[in-house]
Amino acid sequence: MINHKKCGWAGSISEFCNTETTVIVDSCIKFYTLHYNETAEQIKSQIYAWQDSFSYLKGCLANYPYPDDLIIFEYILPRSGLSRPDVIIIQKRDSGRIDLKVIEFKSHPNLQENEKWQLRVYLQKLSYYHSFTHDYVSNIEGILISVHPSWDDSYYVDNEHDLTIVGRYCLLEILKETVSCPNPLSSTVKLNKSSSKELLLQFLDSQYIPSPAIVHSARILFHNRDIPRISTVESSNFYNVLEQVESIIEKAQNDRTHHLVLVHGEPGSGKTFLGLKIAHKDYSQHINPGQAVFLSGNRPLVDVLANLTNDTFVQHLYKFKNEYKPLSNNATQTPYENIFIFDEAQRAWDENKVNHTFNNVSMSEPDIILDIASRVTQQWSVTVALIGQGQEIKGGEEAGLELWANAVRQVSINKQIGYYVHGSPTDLIHFQSNMPANVYLDNSDHLFLNSALRNHDAHQYHKFINSFLEGEFAQAAQYFSLIKDKYLFRWTDSIKAAKSTLTGYASNIKTEDGRFQYGALYSTTSTKPKHFKVFTKTTFYKVPDYVIYHNYRELRGLNSRENNLEAEDFMRWQQHEERYSNCLVYAATEYECQGLELDMALVEWGDDLIYQNNNWQHKPNTYKERDKDAQNPKQLIKNTYRVLLTRGRDATIVFIDDQLLQQLFIRCGVPKLASN
């Protein structure tokens, strides 16, 4: 038996059977409260489930013929956001072969599709991204067990999900059988004889490392599949910027040095695609090889990109932070990557926001990322900070580049390492005060993406939106005069006219992929939209069957409590039934659409941002104003509309019933949408 921060309890099966159930439950409670910040009183139902399953397993395993096999409860999968299978059994054989049984308990009789997929995801995460498993495990099998009496003697193989589903009286026989589910990516290396403790530690300390086959597959997918509407690079300095970043990475490899690269760009200028190009390049042939990862806190964007190319090089920022954040005992793990692409770096969380999410971590997100970069085993790193403009829509995201400057200052002093900071003169202003002598600033005019790709026929469009939201209406009028013949932007007080226009354009215009995608958008801080349905906290969605689960990614949105669409739901919003965006029945919020886009967007301007007394006024007592991390709620709401108004690639129609706002658009030269 060993104590380990990655699991609730671990030991041999004989140790498990001979340890009091209360001792094992107490260990799981301590583990749970450490990671989830919940008291034993708050997790009573979980404790009852542990008590029942442990008692059942003790009875079942009393006659198990291999008492030296190992059993692990509540193991946190690497970079999984605290996802954890109920039970893992490591089966050791004299031949040196290692097999795994991954077990999930369910108490109800009607097993759901998402419960089967959940277990399938665990198997895939272990097979493809767990260093111990794809190095040493020959076979891996998933077992879904229902302890409901109606299942007592049941046993069948679910070929669709490649799982075994059993009742409580059949588990022992299944565990004794030879596993018939070969690990598809196993190198089948025989593990040298190790003690139970050594073997457990090897498994529990395993890193998130994609297998070589998955890495190869991800690169092929990226280069051979179209990345929807973010892969256009015409009329921009995109490749100049890419070449500059790649030269900095090569310098870091050659000199074994640490670098922060600030890449600024206008909305829609290709920052995401730049990050993906950097992430998917092969850096392994250098004498100092490297790997890259694209990190984003925008979950819908991450999930959509992971669907397209698998999630080897695209990771959710929260999961990455949770895996490698500094701990009080300094027993921190180190990622295998050393090139970190941080999306929307200007929105990085400040220390207060991080501390509200991760207890006892008094660091900002830039502090955490640069601390991680300083620990890489290759002794060189490049952090590419992709910087947008006016995209901060949550509290705790408002500190901007000052957080990165402070992080460089702290890591160079505390870790005694030199840091090179590359960026445009405007961005480097934030790094010029109180920097230690081992921080070196490199002014570069080749790190600014200077033209919008999203609105490819209207490079001045984002300037028009910015001026309008800043109340600079004369300037906005000048910018609109430059784009009025290149980009369709209209206001309307008729929802019927707006919908008719969208459907009319869709019937006459074809995009390069054969579809014309449009949809409705609204701000979460406004009153619910008058003309569209919204997704509520209790709305559950069926995952659309066309989604390709090439890596059985963790399914989101099946039982989400958050008031937003996840990637599958966003895709469903675009594709199916009344949730299909072109049906114009449901509307998406700034959180669902940020980083994504439509061909045409219909924005319903709400009551949360109005113009009074020659100034923008925001609706009082919105959740953004109540957010204790928010410094400027009005600016966050203005940024919300900046996001909504820049989602349309070719056109945006704004529905407004406020007459003063209508007059503002007229003042800027924006025509009213013609009624059909």
TrEMBL record:
Gene3D superfamilies the record matches: P-loop containing nucleotide triphosphate hydrolases
Domain named AAA+ ATPase: residues: 257-418
A family per Pfam: SLFN-g3_helicase
Xref: SMART domains: AAA
Superkingdom classification of source: Bacteria
Protein name: AAA+ ATPase domain-containing protein
Lineage: Bacteria, Pseudomonadati, Pseudomonadota, Gammaproteobacteria, Moraxellales
